[in-house]
Amino acid sequence: EVQLVESGGGLVQAGGSLRLSCAASGFTFDDYAIGWFRQAPEKEREGVSCINNNDDNTYYVDSVKGRFTISSDNAKNTVYLQMNSLKPEDTGVYYCAADRLACPRRDMGYWGKGTAVTVSS
Questions:
Q1: Is 34 within 8 Å of 22 (Cβ atoms)?
Q2: What sign has the CA pseudo-torsion 14, 46, 66, 35?
Q3: pLDDT tens by residue, 93-106
Q4: Contacts for 118-121 with beta carbons within 8 Å, 24 or more apart?
Q5: How far, in Å, CA of 5 to CA of 105, rounded?
Q6: What is the pLDDT of residues 4-31, one digit of tens each?
Q7: 83-96: average pLDDT
C-alpha cells in the first residue's frame, strides 16, 4: 500500500523558515517523482515543487524560486521541502504526491493528507 506522510508544518512569522518532510512507503522510491502542492483557503491547489528521483531533475513554481529547495534522501525514502524567507502568501495546506510519470504534472497518482503551514505577517 502506497503511503505518503507529511510533517513539519506549523506557524511561523514572515521571513522565517520551515522544513517539510514527506515519508514514502509502498513503492520503489527511486522510480517515482515526488511533488509538493499547496492549497490556500478559497484558492485552487497549485504545484510548488517536485523532484524526479530517477534523474534528480527538479521544478519550482516561479513564486518560490530562490526561497524553497526540494531534496530527496533515497536511503530514507523521504523528500524534503526547505522553505526560507516565508511570506504570508505561502500559507496553506501542503500536500506531498507521488507518481511514476515525470513531474511537473498536476494529476499525480498518490497523495498524502497534508500538513498546514501558516505564515503570519
A1: yes
A2: positive
A3: 999 999 999 999 99
A4: 118/10, 118/11, 118/12, 118/91, 119/12, 119/13, 119/14, 119/16, 119/86, 119/87, 119/88, 119/89, 119/90, 119/91, 120/11, 120/12, 120/13, 120/14, 120/88, 121/14, 121/88
A5: 20
A6: 999 999 999 999 999 999 999 999 999 9
A7: 98
